[in-house]
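Aim 2 progress update. The chain analyzed this quarter is reproduced below.
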Amino acid sequence: KQVHYIIIGSGTAGATLAARLTEDKDCHVLVLEAGGSDDNFWLKLPVGYFRSIYDNRVSHLYRGEADPGISGRRMDVPRGRVLGGSSSINGLIFIRGQVEDFDDWEKLGAQGWSYRDVLPYFRNIEAYDGAPNQFRGGYGPVGVSNLRNKNFACEAWKQAAREYGLPDNPDFNGDDTYGVGDYQLTLRGRWRESAATAFLQPAMQRPNFQLELNANALRLIYDGNMVVGVEYQQNGELKSAYAEREIILSAGAIQSPQLLQLNGIGPAELLRKHDIKVKVDAPEVGSNLQDHLQMRTIVELADPKYSLNSQVRNPLRLAEMGYQWLFAGKGPLTVGAGQVGGATYTKFSNGKRPDIQIFVMPLSVDKPGMPLHKYPGFTVSYWQCHPESRGNISINSADPFDDPKIVTNYLSTQKDCEVMVEGLRVVREIYDKPAFKNLWQREIIPGSDFESDEEILAAIRKHASTVYHPVGTCRMGNDAKSVVDPELRVRGVTGLRVVDASVMPRIVSANTNAATFMIGEKAASIIKTGI
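Predicted structure tokens:
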């Protein structure tokens, strides 16, 4: 068959792009996915992310280098390696980010990506189950649901946040993220809505859509300065495919820059070190790595019945949860990585723009996949919305199966440290408001003895963890150093684009999945209009 586009990666952006392009019956698209099928119960059950995010059958378990910013620890960097990519294993939170995030992109050179420009694409992708309004879409492919679980302790925490001074915010995907409310999730019915279920399942019914699973992209094939094909390995066999129009990297913020570097597009010194012929000396390929670093605070509740830690150990309560999910499509089995929370600003914020995002869960655990703690825990996590710290990604060798070196550089600027310390003080103030104060009996992490700025910062360096939001490593801009232009074309070659979270000039303030869906949707429009 004649192939017009080859898309490397079936994750959030790649799936969106493939499905939209194949809406034109004369456009043939081939998608290469390194992972396998998403036909797995735990990938479908909403709360199943807890089990799958560290499952190496569906997740590529990258690790960062030892980072002095987090007390010399190596941060986990799991990325989805399955149909649907990370959207099949993530925590389901659907939040776009602040209006100003996208206006910032435009100011940084991403012309055509202001909030006003991207809002129609956000609306296009959504099938939001709430009331229709000018900010939301109701007829798109991606099911977006309001929270379907009520927990007494979470409701009390929201009231405490109001007492702290946060206004009610009924929709974090409206015109403002400031305030307190419930998080929305990528759910359709009782099941997870991933890029695979929303976009690829319909596309698979089309004769002009071709999908190859367990297909590891190894090499870009050049004709002079034009990228014309891809060499890939599938079940031990070396294969190649050619595209008449374009090759599109949608492999994510780790693998898209890795593939560029392996194929001669990257920092010349790095490429020569690994005996790779320099096609384009592009110093920023792999740089500008950003992530949200979260600090989890845990308190022990006075009454065990309000914590899921205790509820899941009660067979009757567990059966009730199953019944609620199966027959009503609600309850604890429908939740994602946060139930309630909000956004607020510290004294370090630029004006009244939130610089702290807060997530609340009526449980506690060391990390996803681990057993819940035996005591009745309650977790309030927060992260800095706009970190200044920047890391980078660089190949370790010319072997495409060799994981790249990931330098995270967390908490490497003074402002990042100050905002994170202040964030803990904000969280503690909310814990101590009347509506919540009598529900808990002791602070477990970091512990009430961490009081001074220095002590709090030391605790953050010891305990903070990723929120699995790596972005920015193929920065979009209008300057010569940017990796891709505002139409997402890779500078220095023709026939090659990058369409995924790696093109973000700056990380959005909240979870990155919604914005990555938008990038795929807008990229499809750009390509269809022939830019």
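The chain has a mean pLDDT of 97. The two ends are 25 Å apart (CA to CA). These observations will guide the mutagenesis experiments scheduled for the next reporting period.
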